[in-house]
Amino acid sequence: MFAFYDLETTGTSPAFDQPLQFAAILTDDDFNQVERVDIRCRLAPHILPAPWALAVTGVSPDQLMDPALPSWFEFSHQISDLIKRWAPATWTGYNTLAFDEEFLRQSFYQNLHPSLYQTQFDNNDRLDLMKVIYAVRERVPDALEWPIDDLGRESFKLDRLAPSNGFANHDAHDALGDVEATIHMASLIRKRAPAVWDQCLLNRDKHQVDRLLQSGHPVRLIERFGAAPPRSYFGAYAGTNPQNRNSVAFLDLDLCDASIIHANDRDLAKAVAASPKLIRTIAMNKVPSVFPVANPSAAHSSLAQLVSAHPEFHKRVGQALADRYADKEPGQHVEQLIYDGFYSADDKQALEDFTAADWRDRARIVAQLDDIRLKQLGMRLIFSNAPEFATMNYRSAASAAIRDRWLTNEPSTPWTTKATVEEQLGEIISGEVLDQNRICALQDFYHARISEVGA
């Protein structure tokens, strides 16, 4: 079974924006529809949506604030219940691993779900059709039509690809329309590029990816960077990050020679960070586009076997991967701490109780949590959904925190600010993107919303 899905959101930051629409279609293995859902939610009190996001998706201020819609908290539980009901399924979308999946995880995290990784548990797995499209372009380019954008470059945007390949009436920037377009493209690929499709399905299993990489033979990796077309890299397994077993090193067989085995640790660190990279990083649990090489060159085979025979080299390269991110600055805001450690058994049980409780009992449960992240997020949930159970001091502090975020004078923030709103509204007006009625509606909405925090 495949669960094709898409989100429309208030902006581009999974940590500081929120989903507004979730659409999904469950199909059998032949892409026949079994069930479809299309749900929306209202805006959370602490979120200031990006004007460009509203302009592109067509979401109106009235929809954002519609009291008949579920809250973000309720919306997140509707999605969670659906994932449980549809399991096991392959959760599939277009650019979902980099975008939609991160929004789902943040929705589960910020709304105190016991598990953040629901599309990977209960025998679920994931597939990103954008990666499959890249592999088709590189391996079987005649299988699809490749549209050209306004700059004369091949476009890999779904709203161009799907119509160019026979999908009529694509309602781009509506979640359900994008889901239907994704199913159309998946069906074409399975028919026209079956070998690529089958290998991509195998790559859903990180253990299968690991076996392929550690076979001692050359492996093809297909990736795309920037506006360049997708391309193949021929490489070999060269180590595992000891701090993240899903992160492995992929040594480029065209850019390296046998001397790399004897490189010192400083040179290995440079090889990992170099551009172009001598040693790439593959996330085995993110369905990488890796393929066996049927007829590798003698030079590639020889170097791959040499690298395979030096486990000490693997260890040093793995450490180089870990060291590359050792100095990464920790997140300053609770939303950025999503991956900073697992929950304790007691807290996980408390979150199970939180889900089933009413808001009065939820306030009591939040007070008993040990994880400071969960406590902070839980208090915000009480403030947003049942403020009568939050203390006056907390309500005052929470309102001040929202005001400080929205009105900050910092030149760059990961969330939308009043200054961002003014800038984007100016761009929308000067570009004549919307008609005057919609522009006035947005201006009135933002004036009222920002005024609520005392601006």
Summarize this entry quickly.
The protein is α+β, with helices and mostly antiparallel strands and 455 residues long. The chain contains 18 helices and ten strands. It has three domains: 1-204, Nucleotidyltransferase, domain 5 (2-Layer Sandwich); 206-324, Exonuclease ExoI, domain 2 (PX Domain, 2-Layer Sandwich); 341-451, no CATH class.
Question: What does this molecule look like?
Answer:
The protein has 455 residues and is of the alpha+beta class. It folds into 3 domains: 1-204, Ribonuclease H-like superfamily/Ribonuclease H (Nucleotidyltransferase, domain 5); 206-324, Exonuclease ExoI, domain 2 (PX Domain, 2-Layer Sandwich); 341-451, no CATH class. Helix content is 46%, strand content 14%. It has 18 helices and 10 strands. The strands form 2 sheets. A 5-stranded mixed beta sheet has the order 3-2-1-4-5, sandwiched between helices. A 5-stranded antiparallel beta sheet has the order 9-8-7-6-10, with helices on both faces. The chain starts with a strand and ends with a helix. The model has no long low-confidence stretch (mean pLDDT 95).
List the helices and strands and how they pair.
Layout (H helix, E strand, L loop, with lengths): L1 E8 L9 E9 L5 E8 L10 H7 L3 H4 L7 H15 L3 E4 L2 H15 L14 E4 H11 L18 H7 L10 H18 L1 H9 L3 H8 L5 E5 L7 E10 L6 E6 L12 H9 L5 E5 L6 E3 L5 H11 L2 H14 L20 H12 L2 H10 L3 H14 L6 H16 L10 H13 L5 H16 L4
Parallel strand pairs: 1-4, 4-5
Antiparallel strand pairs: 1-2, 2-3, 6-7, 6-10, 7-8, 8-9
Helix pairs in contact: 5-7, 6-7, 7-8, 10-12, 13-14, 14-15, 17-18
